Every structure is written in C-alpha cells, then in structure tokens.
Amino acid sequence: MIDLRSDTVTKPTPAMRRAMAEAEVGDDVYREDPTVNRLEDRAAAILGKEAALFLPTGTMGNTIGVKLHTEHGQEVICESRGHLLNYELSMVAWFSGCVLRTIYAEDGILRWDRIRREYRALGPHWAPTGLIEIENTHNMAGGTVYPLDVISEVCDGAHSLGLAVHMDGARLFNAAAYLGVPVSDVVAKADTVTFCLSKALGAPAGSLIAGSARHMDRARLYRKRLGGGMRQAGVLAAAGLIALERHPPLLAADHENARFLASGLAKIHGISIDASKVQTNIVIFSVEGTGFTAPDFSARLKERGVLMNSIDDRRLRLVTHYDVNRESCERALEMVRETAHRAATRGDCG
Ligand code: TLP
After folding, report:
1. Which atom of ligand 1 is least distant from the CA of 135?
2. Do residues 61 and 164 share a domain?
3. pTM here?
4. What number of other Cβ atoms are within 10 A of residue 249's Cβ?
5. pLDDT tens digit string along 66-88?
6. Whether residues 108 and 231 fall in one domain
7. For residue range 23-40, what is the model confidence (pLDDT) as tens digits?
8. Is residue 176 domain-shared with residue 209, that is, in the same domain?
9. How far is the centre of ligand 1, averaged over its atoms, from the C-alpha of 134 (Å)?
C-alpha cells in the first residue's frame, strides 16, 4: 500500500527504534525523565521560547493553548476550516468554555484587517474575544504557509488589543522549510505554539507546546488534568529528539513530491487542482469531473493499492512524508490516472 492519507502514518526509523530502546528514563510527572527534559529544552531553544512541554498529541497542545489565554465565556477567533474547530471534538467548549468565531479565508491565512473586524470587546450582548488562533501550515486549505509579515501584523494587532496569539504549528517545520527561515522566526511573536513530532517529522507519537516559563508551568497542570502526565515518557521523547534534530532537512523532499503529484494530477482528465498553490506536503484536489464521488474514488484507489482520504464529497487530500519516495508517488499518480480513465471510458461511476 502507498499510504498518502496523512503524514501521521510514518513508521519509526531504525535510528528512532534504537534510541527508544536505549533511552534513559525517569518519572516525568516528577520531572525526572532526563530524555523528556532534554527534548523540552531543545524544543524551547530551537523555537526561541523560554520553555516547552512534551505532550501526547497536538490536540492536547491546542486545548492547553486555548485554556492558557482565555476565560470561560469568551470567543476564540480562528479560520473556518481550522483543525481547532473541525477535528478536535469541541475541546474549546468542553475544556475552556469558549466559543469559536470563525473567519473564512480562501488560502486559510487570516489577515489582521479581517480579524480586527471580528474582534469584540465585552458588551451588553457580546462575549469578548479572548484569543486569536492561527494554523500554520493550514491543513484543510492545502498546507498553506503564513507569510512572516502577516504573522507579525496579526500578533502586533492582537497584542495592541491585549490579546494573545496561539499558533497551531502541527506542521510548523514545514512552514519554516517552505519559507527558508529558522522556525524561531516563524514563532517569534506568537505567545504560544504547538508543534507535532508525529506529523511530517516522523516520530511515532508526541507534540510540544512552547511559550513563556510562566505559561508552561500552568500548561503542566492542564496537561495533568487532561490525563497527559506520562511517567517514563523518555522512550517516546528519544524518538522525538531524532525527529526534531535530524528530520527537518528531509521536509524539502516531501514538498517536492507534493508538487510533483500536484502537477501530475493537474494533467489528468476530470481532476481539478491549481498545482501552483501547493506549498508544502498537503495536496487537495477535486475528482468531481471524473463522475465519481470522492469517497468512491478513494475506495477504488484503495483497490489499486493507494490510500488517500476524501475530505468531502468532491475532494481528496493526499499528504507526502518520508515513507513515500518519488517512485511511490509516480505509481500513485498512475493509479489515479487509471481510476479516472476507467470512469471516463467505461462509465464506471459510483
Ligand atoms: N491532523 C490530522 C487529522 O486530525 C486531520 C491529519 O491527518 O492531518 N493541528 C493540525 C493542523 C493537524 O493537522 C492535526 C492533526 C492536529 C492539530 C492534531 O494533532 P493530533 O492528531 O496529534 O492530536
């Protein structure tokens, strides 16, 4: 199977497995796991933040990020296709008691003028805005990257109103690779940032949240409340350290493979995609013109050994990662071509 459903599907490398077997561990709830401590210190240093905290998932990172900056009854502004709203089981409401005020942006990138219009101070009828959340890269907008000046403007604007900015940087390192800048530049003005070791960086599990030492002390309490105190978590942190130190340079190849797939898809009859918009490792395309629904197209691709998820009735998403090389991308493209062609020539539509 060529698995392009997500970059979460990668298997740990031999180096990761060795490091996991040999990891020095302790009880992380007592802050005695040397490998976790090392990972947190390295992550904070690489991001240019005072402190970082190891977490089981990105969802927990965003949940804690929202909780740190808000009070019950406030609004959190995010883009309308944001992961925070659509894929996190309403944790913003469940844990933080806030509602989301969404803004649609075609490219997923929220600009300050749009945010400013949605900002609300406390009024007789209005819940006040408590936080701005930005997703970088933006998953469902197709892996799009916030330009540095946009982040800067959003953060300056938010801060001028006394608001914090939390960045969902699940694929933060992809954003930095695309921009060709250190990750610390991308997150410099964000108050807190979550990033995942288990996405494109390829670790089997784990994410971090980073920010001020004061925020991370509170984040540690919220992590425990959420059931995320993980004891001898050094076995996971060891793989995470390899992901963090060695894998960022590999991301450029994933981005090239995504562009290769996108430009190949653009040539297939019945498929629509603007390949020039693909920036990182996520490609979203429509199969509407093939006559198949996206779930049917996905099922037929699976029969041909290629996994891609439908994200709605018309569109599929593919995500490149280090377990899929160029040869597998060529094969995947061939299978998409065959599936679309079969629909066109035999009327085999689902
Ligand atoms: N994204 C997953 C699915 O949940 C959709 C994927 O396959 O892309 N923020 C962003 C932008 C994400 O894409 C994800 C996971 C998360 C947060 C949550 O991370 P986890 O799965 O570790 O909770």
Report:
1. 11
2. yes
3. 0.97
4. 9
5. 999 999 999 999 999 999 999 99
6. yes
7. 999 999 999 999 999 999
8. yes
9. 14
